[in-house]
Amino acid sequence: MFTGLVETMGKVVELIDDPPGKRLRIDCGLVAEGAELGDSICINGCCLTVVAMEAGRLDFEAGEETLSRTNLGLLNVGGLVNLERSLAVGDRLGGHYVTGHVDAVGTLVERRDDPPWANLRFRMPERLAGQVAAKGSIAIDGISLTVVDADSDSFTVALIPHTLEVTTLGNRGIGDEVNLETDVLAKYVQRALETKSEG
Q1: Where are the alpha helices (H) located in the chain, listed in sequence order?
Q2: What residue ranges do the domains of the chain occupy?
Q3: How far is CA 146 from CA 28, 61, 62, 105, 183, in A?
Q4: What class has domain 104-198?
């Protein structure tokens, strides 16, 4: 479980073929401090397990399913990723509950910069529309954000200067793909309504 508050950006230093998936070697900076084998780290909103470590660099295994259903399959050496360690019991919850289970890949379709702020619109699969609401929470590449408005296949967020500076969203351009995770509470509400209507 995570909060969606990115601790730092890491840099991909190596991508190693490990059929049927890949091993990601990432320079994790402060997130590597105190890390242990088996720890869960949120990488661009995707929960992965530390499988090796050396001098601030952590290795993660990403399977074929993960690579095909998230933007981790699009990573290149030198690319930046958002990193967050898992939530410890008793920690402050400044964002919202993020599971690290990506629901879908979205696409940035509009960016209006209003320095030092920015407003971004993302296209999403229509199946997620019932889980995304204005003033609700969503995780984009692991970043906890508040939805400004939403329609049947897209939504907008407003980014403050800090978010633009310390996360990968500052460098995202039109057409870039991002990992989306809707609010876990919205999932349960939608499922409850579906079950009730089926009954």
Answers
A1: 64-69, 161-166, 184-198
A2: 8-85, 104-198
A3: 26, 30, 28, 18, 11
A4: mainly beta
Answering whether pTM is above 0.90, one says yes
Look up residue 175 and give its DSSP letter.
T
Q: Which long-range contacts (CB under 8 A, 24 or more apart) does 48-57 make?
A: 48/24, 51/23, 56/27, 56/28, 56/29, 56/32, 57/13, 57/25, 57/26, 57/27, 57/28, 57/32
Q: 181: which strand partners?
A: 139
Give the model confidence (pLDDT) of 141-189 as tens digits: 999 999 999 999 999 999 999 999 999 999 999 999 999 999 998 888 8
Per the CB < 8 A criterion, the answer to whether 129 and 152 are in contact is yes
Right CATH number for 8-85 from 1.10.10.10, 2.40.30.20, 3.40.50.10140, 2.10.10.90?
2.40.30.20
| Rounded Cα gap, residues 172 and 14, in angstroms | 22
